[in-house]
Amino acid sequence: MIRYLCPNECLGSLLDVDLDKLSNKGYRGIILDIDNTLLPWRGDALEHAVLTWVERAKAAGFQLCLTSNALRERVVRVSEALEIHAIAGAIKPRKKPFRQALELLGTRSTETVVIGDQLFTDILGGNRMRLYTILIDPVGTEEMAFTRLVRRLERRIIRRLSRKGYISENAARRRLATRKR
Known about the structure:
Blueprint: E1 9-11, H1 19-24, E2 29-32, H2 48-59, E3 63-67, H3 72-82, E4 85-87, H4 95-105, E5 112-116, H5 119-128, E6 132-136, H6 145-163, H7 169-178
Parallel strand pairs: 1-6, 2-3, 2-5, 3-4, 5-6
């Protein structure tokens, strides 16, 4: 079970994702979470750096798709602002939204990346579909009560992944330091 919760990479932010490296490895599609990945939970304004990253990804030939558990209205707003595909109310980590995203992207699982901030939704769902998974630190600290609860378990898993050598000590330390509550 632990392998399903282990990301292929653990980075500080979306801006740390190396698009050239992904392209050189043959990845063509990127599935992105919204809340605490692209913008803070309940946040509406996408930062200039995020907009620039998305435009760079498009210019590099990547197909992008938002896949979020958020309500349709919010997902559509972000999707339209970024001019990319989207799946709302995804109920991740179910496989169905990831299959839908692959169809929208026109990519296979072997050429698709998932980027998100949660082990139990983004990483678990991506790993179940054998996608390349990148866990990033949340961009904000405000979250739903249930998510705050799940973060406690997530911190324990992060420590275990680090002890077993699946993620670096530095990444675990950084991740755990940003999540103190």
